[in-house]
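Pasting two entries for a bug report.
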Amino acid sequence: MNIGDTIQLKALGSATKRTKNRIHNRGKSGFKVRKAPQRAKFTDNRGVEWIQLDAIDNDWSGWLPMDEIEVINEIKCQENVKSVSNALQSDSERVTL
């Protein structure tokens, strides 16, 4: 997952009610990744990585814990795809020279 990617999530069975509710109520059309998974600096972060997301079809923005979610669909941001494609092309050019 990279910043700008669009993802659809599923809450794991062990997820908290908060996580399940956010995904059910705010994520029907998916989420856009605002910040990649990282250790959050807020209190009660439980020592796990969290991801900051923006809902696609409403104004919700917030953090979800990575250990409570499963990505069921991911659409790469075109800017990220171009960067990877350019890097691969550069690598292949270096190999063929």
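Entry 2 (this is the one that rendered wrong in the viewer):
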Amino acid sequence: MNGGGRARSSVERTMTKFNRYIYQNLVSQLEVQIENWNRMANAETNLQAAQALRLKAEGLGYGLRLLDAFEPEFQELVDCANQMTRTGGTHYDQGTH
């Protein structure tokens, strides 16, 4: 311990680094992967391999739409995590939401 203060645990150090833009980053990464698989499918000469890439992109597109449908709940979880980070709390008051 430095100067009589308490040492911070690894959990506390990790919590202070919580990424509040995680939803936007996740959506962006999914969009990039979909574009990449579609580009690869267009360049693929093997029709079966091209179809497999298109199906992967389509499946990820469904996942992206599902993520979009649950954005409010996802943001609530992010807000909760950020609240816990700020307060150092270990619980979430569900009665306020």
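Dev reply: Rendering is fixed now. As a check, the viewer should reflect this: The mean pLDDT is 81.
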